[in-house]
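**Backbone shape codes:**
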Amino acid sequence: MKTSFYALCLLAGFTGLSGPIAAKKTPVDYVSTLVGTQSKFELSTGNTYPATAMPWGMNFWTPQTGKMGDGWVYTYNADKIRGFKQTHQPSPWINDYGQFSIMPVTGNIVFDEDKRASWFSHKAEVALPYYYKVYLADHDVTTELTKNLILVLILNPIYSKKCVSYR
């Protein structure tokens, strides 16, 4: 009886040392919405973009590397984000309707999408079906998207002007 008790205490001690229990992953946690984004007009490798949305949703949030009105909303080889677009677009071949784009910037309001674009790295990008996060280096801003919310974090407190421009 004593041996069983000591074995139980030893087992409890080892499990306690292993740290907190990690949250259980679901199949959607293994999906990367960047798969299929390395497309261009000459060669299609998926024609997808990293949409953050509910299944069968009508509106999607997505980072925008292409120009407004260009069917290619997001291409993996791009190194600048021009904005975060609310879109209905299921494919680059049919373009979009009723779309708009917003972009967190620091300093003065900039509406020109070429001037407000910010460098980003895929190393600072998280792309899941229900969540997207990226660090925009030129504006020192982290932007997070969920299926129904955009959160902008201004990380550097020295900026006196913070704004979100839209087009």
Residues 31-166 form a domain with the Beta-galactosidase; Chain A, domain 5 fold (CATH 2.70.98.10). Residues 18 and 145 are 33 Å apart (CA to CA).
